[in-house]
Design goal:
Blueprint: H1 5-9, H2 15-24, H3 27-36, H4 40-48, H5 52-62
Helix pairs in contact: 2-5, 4-5
Length: about 70
């Protein structure tokens, strides 16, 4: 799952797989998924997309993660 996170996040149906993995997965899986999209620019674009925004919302409510700040 982690290897295909970006493809799954933007997919109409597969984003639910990522959301479920975030909800029920091990800390290692959750970290792998969140690290995939934690860059500031990538996160910004994912927040604007219909399906990926659901995943970003799930992460922001249920898990602690930080977004690198721009310099």
């Amino acid at each position: 799952i982690a290897a295909n996170t970006l493809d799954f996040i933007v997919d109409k149906h597969a984003n639910y797989v990522i959301q479920l993995a975030l909800q029920m997965g091990s800390p290692r899986i959750i970290t792998a998924i969140t690290n995939t999209f934690c860059s500031h620019d990538r996160l910004r674009s994912l927040c604007k997309q219909q399906y990926s925004s659901n995943v970003v919302e799930k992460v922001s409510y249920n898990h602690k993660f930080s977004v690198p700040r721009r310099k």
